[in-house]
Design brief:
Blueprint (H helix, E strand, L loop, with lengths): L3 H24 L1 H4 L12 H25 L2 E5 L1 E2 L4 E2 L9 E6 L5 H8 L15 H15 L2
Antiparallel strand pairs: 1-4, 2-3
Helix pairs in contact: 1-3
The structure holds zinc ion (ZN).
The site of zinc ion (ZN) has 7 residues, from helix 5.
């Protein structure tokens, strides 16, 4: 089975080819757009660019899958002595810093769900390093446009 790293390298290679193809077309837009019958995936402009767009959709789906795992869990202040939510003057529950569902240990998540959480439980704040790395990488690509 091909690893995720190998698949990403293949995608990066096809994206690079697509970028070069677009650059070549832009230099001579009237004569450079190539389409063949039968189609040649590594030669035809439309197929090179379409494949790169498909790769972009796959990469986006992969990132969404990772982000779905590393979702934010809301944590609210709970008064375990009185067995009630801690509320502010307006009667609103007081939020504590959220944690990552994937990175926080399971027993800590159970304690949060059961309102038995305390500072003794290990938690990983949200956004976790994985979400931060994805956000940073996506923000960098936006800046490059
Ligand atoms: Zn996480």
């Amino acid at each position: 089975m091909t690893t995720a790293t190998e698949l990403l390298a293949e995608i990066e290679g096809r994206l690079s080819v697509a970028h070069l193809e677009i650059g070549d077309v832009a230099v001579d837009v009237r004569n450079r757009w190539r389409m063949s019958i039968p189609a040649r995936p590594d030669y035809d402009t439309d197929l090179i660019i379409s494949r790169a767009l498909d790769d972009g959709e796959k990469a986006t789906s992969a990132l969404r899958a990772v982000l779905a795992l590393h979702e934010e869990v809301e944590v609210w202040a709970f008064d375990d002595v009185n067995g009630a939510w801690v509320t502010d003057d307006d009667g609103e529950k007081i939020p504590l810093p959220p944690v990552c569902r994937e990175c926080t240990p399971h027993d800590s998540l159970l304690a949060i769900e059961d309102c038995e959480w305390s500072d003794d439980y290990e938690t990983v704040p949200y956004p976790c390093p994985t979400v931060t790395a994805i956000t940073t990488a996506l923000s960098a690509s936006e800046a490059g446009l």
